[in-house]
Write a structure and sequence with these properties.
It holds the Pfam family Curlin_rpt. This is Curlin associated repeat-containing protein. Belongs to the CsgA/CsgB family. Keywords: Signal. One of its GO terms (cellular component) is pilus. This protein is an all-beta fold and 475 residues long. Among the domains are: 116 residues; 92 residues, no CATH class. It has a 22-stranded parallel beta sheet that branches. The chain has a 19-stranded parallel beta sheet. The protein starts with a strand and ends with a strand. The relative contact order is 0.04.
């Protein structure tokens, strides 16, 4: 066992030379340095063992301008180091399996680099101060990294290659920080938990199957979160994100992927863009606030996309390309805009509105399209449905309120405009407008418009058309 305590660089270098030249299995090295002046301390430790090695190192520095360089080769190695002061550099490397590493850095302009090669490795980096950098590279399986930082301008980067890897930023606090995590393998987990701050830039890439990324209790303004998952059975969860002017991009490529945000986001003027390419994907998202821009894009078969927007002046868009797609938008509030575009077969769209001055638009191109629009005690809303180049198009409408406008255009065969869970549509209220145009064969319009000062127009072009509408029906 070697133990050295010094304030001088020269003695630290002697320690490093001794350790690098004479290290054997089961060695333990402890170095403590305290700098009360302007000296720049340097510690270098090298331990090399065999398959039965069980090396252990503790290196501690207190002061400014310090540097620690530790390398271990073997199995079951452990590193525990602390640096206190400004402009510190800690460079760590472990080559083998079952490593354990804890790095604590306190001060400004610090740099921490961790390189572990092997399996079942664990690295924890705790940083407090400004302008710190953390870079972690792990190669193998069962790797685990955790970073926690306090301050501004911090940078954290983790690269993991293998299976069952985990990497997370927990309890971060500060502004203008950068987090980059890349995982390649199977059943990897990445997460941002409890991060608070503004102008943070977070990028996550996961390659493989059954990967999961979780963002929880994430708060702040002007943050950007960019997630890319390539594989099958991947999952992204955000629950919740609080703040204003945040941007979130999620891109999933593969089959059976999931995006969930049941209590989603709260704040104003946030932008969310979700993309899924593959089969049997699912998205559910909810937001509370004003001025949000939410976009869901799905390409493939049997996709499901749902969003709920609570607030005002929000824009929600769902675009699907493929077969048997379902898209649903719920608007609660005023002056919101909901858009659904489906290009494929057997598409189904649901729009539910609770509020005033909202605009809803559905565009379906394909076969057997269906749209349901519902709203009770809503005023001055505008609903437009366009179904083209499809057979068996169906529009079910139930709107109650004043000043609402419904515009339906169907181009195809066997078109139908009726009511939600009823044989006829119903638009109730005063000063409403209903415009229905059908181009095709076997068209049918059944419905009722209740109230006063309403306008109703039905245009049918084709064969076997039927229009039965009861205007000024009781509300």
């Amino acid at each position: 066992m070697f133990k050295f305590t010094s304030r001088k660089t020269l003695l630290a270098l002697s320690v490093a030379a001794c350790l690098s030249g004479q290290a054997v299995a089961n060695d333990t090295a402890i170095v403590l340095q305290t700098n009360t002046g302007n000296q720049e301390n340097l510690v270098q430790l090298v331990q090399t063992g065999t398959a039965t090695s069980d090396n252990f190192i503790i290196a501690q520095q207190v002061g400014s301008g310090n540097e620690t360089d530790i390398q271990q080769s073997g199995t079951a190695n452990e590193i525990d180091t602390y640096s206190g002061g400004d402009a510190n550099s800690v460079l760590l490397k472990q080559d083998g399996s079952s490593h354990l590493m804890l790095v604590e850095v306190e001060g400004n302009n610090n740099l921490v680099e961790v390189n572990q090669m092997g399996v079942a490795q664990e690295a924890t980096a705790l940083v407090q101060g400004d302008d710190n950098q953390i870079s972690i590279v792990q190669d193998g399986g069962l790797n685990w990294t955790l970073a926690e930082f306090r301050g501004n301008g911090n940078s954290y980067e983790a690269l993991q290659d293998g299976v069952f890897n985990e990497s997370a930023v927990i309890g971060g606090l500060g502004n203008d920080n950068t987090v980059a995590i890349e995982q390649d393998g199977f059943a990897n987990v990445g997460g941002i938990v409890g991060l608070r701050g503004n102008n943070n830039d977070i990028a996550i890439q996961q390659f493989g199957d059954e990967n999961v990324f979780i963002a929880r209790t994430f708060s702040g303004n002007n943050n950007e979160l960019n997630i890319f998952q390539d594989g099958s059975g991947n999952e992204f969860q955000i629950n919740p994100l609080n703040g204003n002017d945040n941007v979130v991009f999620v891109d999933q490529v593969g089959a059976n992927n999931l995006i969930e945000a049941p209590i989603g986001i709260s704040g104003d003027n946030n932008t969310y863009d979700f993309v899924q390419a593959g089969d049997d994907n699912y998205i559910f998202f909810a937001s509370v606030g004003s001025g949000h821009d939410l976009m869901i894009s799905q390409t493939g078969n049997n996709n499901n996309g749902e969003m709920i927007l609570v607030g005002s002046a929000n824009v929600g868009t769902i675009e699907t390309t493929g077969d048997n797609n379902y898209a649903g938008i719920g608007l609660v509030g005023n002056a919101n805009n909901g858009r659904i575009s489906q290009n494929g077969s057997d598409n189904f769209a649901l729009l539910d509105v609770a509020g005033d001055r909202n605009r809803l638009n559905v565009n379906q191109a394909g076969n057997a399209n269906e749209v349901i629009v519902t709203g009770e005690s809503v005023n001055n809303n505008n609903v437009t449905v366009n179904q083209r180049n499809g057979d068996l198009n169906l529009v079910d409408v139930l709107l109650e309120g004043n000043g609402n406008t419904l515009n339906v255009l169907q181009r195809g065969s066997q078109n139908w405009v009726g009511g939600d869970n009823a044989p006829s549509f119903r638009v109730a209220g005063d000063n409403g407008t209903v415009l229905i145009t059908q181009q095709g064969s076997d068209n049918l319009v059944l419905g009722a418009q209740g109230g006063v000062d309403n306008v109703l127009q039905v245009v049918q072009i084709g064969s076997f058309n039927t229009a039965i509408v009861n205007q000024n029906a009781p509300n």
